[in-house]
């Protein structure tokens, strides 16, 4: 295609900043996985070449990675010497959102032209990296849901001997629950075998394997099994939107009541659809909402959710609005 560039604007600095931010998003994610973000956060300054040598990395590429951070003002760089600043600390706090986008969801966004074509939108038409998403989600949870989650657990006023986490990912929440209720048995259910594998390893490494069981299964089509019969506390975080649309959601909520007949409390924590102006979107919102549109996943609003609980057989005890980046909320159901 030939494009007439005679009207090309001259705001090249702005364009370069957009481009460099895209490159830097990859660098932030890689630097986190390689331990470089943690090293810099703690030491405040490091030598990129030395870091490369001690971590078995290519020196030129590693310096380039730090240069990408420098290009968008996250570090000061003189040669190989890199120093963190306030902007670095802010990004460090938000690193999991970058990783979710540029590593966990990379293939989805790379395939955007194909994924948008109606003729392709059937069956398994997109790919994401389930293990990488689970890795990022653990920290996303820590910066968004965790404080409210702990408060909700403090309001559990009955003995908990069995807990189940639905869509358990890499098992972090299940381990938290089992530590919070010492002696309780834990059950993790997830549809993705790679996530269950990571979860099993983590649980074993933390000495919790003897009182934990994992099942690969679809939460939307779960069948009753003896192991589920004793569960009093159910949690489901960052996958509740998969229950939707409305009729499916009501059916899933009802089914979960049957599959977990003794469940007294159900905590659902998830993102909800925001209605912010395009130019006022915080970190994560844009990637999360576009990503889910690409995947054809309906993201309900808080009001959508509140309209299904009674029909699904659950009483809404409390709505905890967190609304930090993607309309996060925790519903406490009884
Ligand atoms: C965004 S991650 C959240 C992981 C974990 N709940 C947490 O709080 O960190 C969503 C998880 O739900 C799982 N999942 C998605 N749809 C599912 C389904 N229908 N049945 C079971 N698991 C599902 C995914 O494999 C993934 O591990």
Molecular structure report:
The protein has helices spanning 12-33, 36-43, 48-54, 59-71, 86-93, 95-104, 106-110, 112-116, 130-143, 146-154, 172-180, 193-205, 246-259, 285-294, 302-306, and strands at residues 45-47, 75-78, 81-84, 162-166, 185-190, 212-216, 233-237, 265-270, 316-321, 329-333. The longest helix is centred in the N-terminal third of the chain and has 22 residues, at 12-33. The chain contains 15 helices and 10 strands. It has 2 domains: 12-93, Arc Repressor Mutant, subunit A, CATH 1.10.10; 134-333, Vaccinia Virus protein VP39 (Rossmann fold), CATH 3.40.50.150. The chain has a 7-stranded mixed sheet with strand order 6-5-4-7-8-10-9, with helices on one face. Strand 9 (316-321) and strand 10 (329-333) form a beta hairpin. 46% of the residues lie in helices and 15% in strands. The chain is of the alpha/beta class and 334 residues long. Helix 3 packs across helix 4 and helix 6 (95-104) packs antiparallel against helix 9. Residues 130, 133-134, 137-138, 141, 167-169, 172-173, 189-192, 195, 218-220, 237-239, 242 line the site of S-adenosylmethionine. S-adenosylmethionine binds at residues 130, 133-134, 137-138, 141, 167-169, 172-173, 189-192, 195, 218-220, 237-239, 242.
- Give the CATH superfamily of the largest domain: Vaccinia Virus protein VP39
Q: Identify the CATH architecture of the largest domain.
A: 3-Layer(aba) Sandwich
Write down the CATH topology of the largest domain.
Rossmann fold
Structural category: alpha/beta
Count of distinct structural domains: 2
Q: What is the first-to-last residue Cα distance?
A: 59 Å
In what range is the share of β-strand residues? Answer: 5-15%
- Shape designation: globular
Low-confidence stretches: none
Number of helices: 15
What integer is the average pLDDT? 95
Cofactors and ligands: S-adenosylmethionine
**Rg of Cα set:** 22 Å
Under CATH at level 1, the class of the largest domain stands as Alpha Beta
Give the beta-strand count.
10
């Amino acid at each position: 295609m030939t494009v007439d560039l005679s009207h090309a604007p001259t705001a090249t600095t702005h364009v370069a900043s957009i481009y460099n931010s895209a490159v830097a998003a990859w660098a932030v994610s890689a630097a986190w996985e390689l331990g470089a973000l943690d090293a810099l956060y703690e030491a405040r300054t490091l030598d990129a070449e030395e870091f490369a040598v001690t971590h078995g990395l290519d020196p030129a590429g590693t310096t380039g990675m730090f240069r990408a951070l420098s290009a968008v003002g996250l570090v000061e760089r003189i040669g190989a010497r890199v120093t963190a600043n306030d902007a670095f600390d802010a990004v460090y706090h938000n690193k999991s959102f970058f990783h979710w986008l540029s590593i966990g969801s990379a293939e989805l966004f790379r395939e955007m032209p194909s994924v948008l074509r109606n003729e392709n939108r059937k069956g398994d038409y997109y790919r994401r990296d389930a293990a990488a998403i689970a890795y990022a989600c653990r920290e996303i949870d820590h910066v968004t849901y965790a404080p409210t989650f702990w408060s909700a657990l403090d309001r559990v006023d009955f003995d908990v001997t069995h807990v189940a986490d639905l869509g358990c990912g890499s098992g972090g929440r299940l381990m938290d629950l089992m530590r919070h209720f010492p002696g309780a048995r834990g059950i993790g259910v997830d549809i993705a075998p790679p996530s269950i594998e990571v979860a099993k390893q983590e649980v074993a490494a933390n000495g919790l394997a003897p009182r934990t069981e994992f099942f690969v299964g679809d939460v939307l089509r779960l069948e009753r099994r003896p192991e589920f019969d004793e569960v009093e506390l159910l949690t489901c975080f960052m996958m509740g939107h998969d229950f939707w649309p409305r009729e499916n959601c009501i059916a899933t909520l009802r089914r979960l009541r049957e599959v977990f007949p003794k469940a007294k409390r159900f905590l659902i924590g998830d993102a909800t659809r925001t209605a912010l102006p395009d130019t006022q979107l915080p970190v994560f919102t844009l990637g999360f909402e576009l990503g889910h549109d690409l995947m054809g996943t309906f993201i309900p609003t808080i009001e959508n959710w509140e309209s299904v609980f009674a029909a699904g057989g659950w009483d809404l005890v409390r709505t905890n609005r967190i609304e930090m980046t993607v309309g996060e909320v925790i519903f406490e159901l009884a």
